[in-house]
Amino acid sequence: MSAPWLVVGLGNPGPKYAGHRHNIGAMVVAELARQAGASLREHKASRAWAAEVRLGTAPGGVPGPRAVLARPMTYMNLSGGPVSGLAKFYKTPLEQVIVVHDELDIDFGAVRLKRGGGEGGHNGLRSISQSLGSRDYLRVRLGIGRPPGRQDAADYVLTDFPMRDKVEVELLVGDGVDAVHDLVHLGLEPTQRRFHAR
User: Fold this and answer.
1) Which of 111, 97, 130 has its CA nearest to residue 28?
2) How far apart are CA 7 and CA 140, in angstroms?
3) Which of 32, 94, 128, 156 is the most buried (most CB within 10 A)?
4) What is the rounded CA–CA span in Å between residue 179 and residue 77?
5) What is the C-alpha to C-alpha distance for residues 57 and 5, in angstroms, rounded to an integer?
6) Burial code of 64-91, b = ≥16 C-beta within 10 A, e = fewer?
7) Residue 182: which residues within 8 A CB-CB, separation 6 or more?
8) DSSP labels, 134-149
9) Distance of CA 152 to CAs 32, 104, 159, Å?
């Protein structure tokens, strides 16, 4: 049996962080789990909440590929240990690891995808790259935009999305879900063409 995909949504643990911009990746994984009828539970071999699912439906109504949906139980800057632990446990190759995360350098509401590259100052990505020993995993990058005025970026990512953006946040989460499905079913380049053309 082939190894499952590993889809990791980044964020900080606990209710006080739940609505933060930094937690948009975790929101996407929560929605993926909800749509799959699964609950994220503490994983026995890693400091993460995880659920094994089938992602969507393949042509002919066949259940989609196996995937592990996960979010680290650690704070963002320690995400790497849980991710590498899950990848080892499920024997998931690097090319099937998808990390869903917030991105300051992308306009709010936009979705961009890539494999590899730098971390752009994102502590969660830096930790994952160090623990996996490579940067060549897939990223679903969810645009949260730059902070207004002189607000510090670290403060900006650790604040809730304003209520006026509620609908846009829901749309961004939905686009993140669609991007993960397309990555798994179609591959990187077709998914990039779909989302980067917007």
Assistant:
1) 111
2) 10
3) 128
4) 24
5) 15
6) bbbbbbbbbbbebeebbbbbbbbbebbe
7) 190, 191, 194, 195
8) -S-SEEEEEE--PPST
9) 31, 12, 11
pTM of the model: 0.96
Q: Which is catalytic among the residues 22, 43, 101, 181?
A: 22
Structure-token pair, residue 89: 């446990």
137 is in an annotated binding site: no
DSSP state of 165: G
Q: What order do you get walking across the sheet with 48-54 strand by strand?
A: 41-42, 48-54, 66-72, 5-9, 97-103, 138-143, 111-115
43-89 pLDDT tens trace: 988 999 999 999 987 777 788 899 999 999 999 999 999 999 999 99
DSSP readout, 100-127? EEEETTS-TT-EEEEES---TT-HHHHH
Annotation marks residue 22 as catalytic: yes
Q: Which residue has the tokens 């990746």?
A: 25
Distance CA 40, CA 45 (A): 14
Q: 12 among the known binding-site residues?
A: no
Task: Please state the domain extents for the chain.
Answer: 5-196
